Amino acid sequence: MIAHLFHAPVGEHDTAVGVGTVGSSEAIMLAGLAFKRKWQAKRKALGKTYDRPNIVTGSNVQVCWEKFASYFEVDLKEVKLKEGYYVMDPVKAVEMVDENTICVATILGSTMTGEFEDVKLLNDLLMEKNEETGWDTPIHVDAASGGFVAPFLYPDIEWDFRLPLVKSINVSGHKYGLVYAGIGWVVWRTKEDLPDELVFHINYLGTDQPTFTLNFSKGSSQIIAQYYQFIRLGFEGYKDIMMNCSKNTRTLKEGLQKTGRFDIISKDIGVPLLAFSLKDSSRYSVFDISESLRRFGWIVPAYTMPPDAQHISVLRVVVREDFSCSLADRLIADIVKVVNELEAAPPTDNSISVHNGEESEHNVREMQKGITKYWRRFAHGKKTSSVC
Ligand SMILES: *Cc1c(COP(=O)(O)O)cnc(C)c1O
């Protein structure tokens, strides 16, 4: 189902090639390893050195790519970001590719801002470079979040196996796949893209089982849950849910814009999430807002952007199925409250303020009140997740 969703060239009677994993991180370890082995085999066959593999990504990659590079001894070559441009620039990425590049990893839905990278442009530029150089550098798409968003909301965006250089794609079942935590997927374009030597065959459980995973035993509950969601909701069901997420993101965006205090960093087309920064952070920072919002039971992360945009700091709200428009309204109201308080407070030196004992007691009481209120609503059957 997932291979078809991503337009893998599999016929009606072919078996798609892929594996269920604990999440996108494990999926990426496996996909990266497949690229490394393929590249090594090719270099060996040509009688060339194969001890300095590298991988090209944007500096906005999720930490699992840094882990892959470190654990599997591959140099990570990162395209740096700049203020106002928070995804990997395909032109710069292709410039960085050399004969030791095992693949270019691109993200469909940057973790930082939700923005889709331009996989089509990357594919086209890399095709040209491959033609000039005689290399055949492939592409991996890290679609951890976007893999279950783009096919439903933006079916015309070409980012998947419709592009010839895309050889593998990962997606997290526990993000927009709508399953509880512990499931990810990696799909290869064809059987040839996964080196045989990595697949182990065991028969001691009754039948031949090909395995390509980092661990062995694993619960099947997530796989059943994913299967259930697919057949229960279908394409239309996922589409409705993603459209609703997108609509609630818009509600949140408009509410934040109305406050006049924030710049919206995320794009309208992308993963339904909102990354935003303070227009004026001279008196208080996004970190202060994040800290204060905890009193109302919200955990809204604040962080700095990756290099070379690390001087920009943002808050991020991920809008999933259960983030209703009434929750969006409450979050906006709480943000306004927090910002007004921070504005009324005496100026600090812009570092996270140190509270005295009395103040932190007050904060704990406020937080408890917030939590109690939430649970009361819940206990009285007030919907916290509704379609609006
Ligand atoms: C979340 C995320 C990952 C890691 O996925 P897990 O399923 O949590 O292991 C990798 N890449 C991107 C772009 C992500 O957003």
TrEMBL record:
One Gene Ontology cellular component: cytosol
Entry's Gene Ontology BP terms: L-glutamate catabolic process
Gene3D superfamilies the record matches: 3.90.1150.160, Type I PLP-dependent aspartate aminotransferase-like (Major domain)
Origin superkingdom: Eukaryota
Transmembrane stretches, start-end: none
Example of a GO MF term: glutamate decarboxylase activity
Enzymatic reactions: L-glutamate + H(+) = 4-aminobutanoate + CO2
N6-(pyridoxal phosphate)lysine found at: 175
Enzyme nomenclature, EC number: 4.1.1.15
InterPro entries associated with the record: Glutamate_decarboxylase (IPR010107), PyrdxlP-dep_de-COase (IPR002129), PyrdxlP-dep_Trfase (IPR015424), PyrdxlP-dep_Trfase_major (IPR015421)
Names of required cofactors: pyridoxal 5'-phosphate
Keyword annotations: Calmodulin-binding, Decarboxylase, Lyase, Pyridoxal phosphate
Record family assignment: Belongs to the group II decarboxylase family.
Protein name: Glutamate decarboxylase
Source organism per UniProt: Artemisia annua (Sweet wormwood)
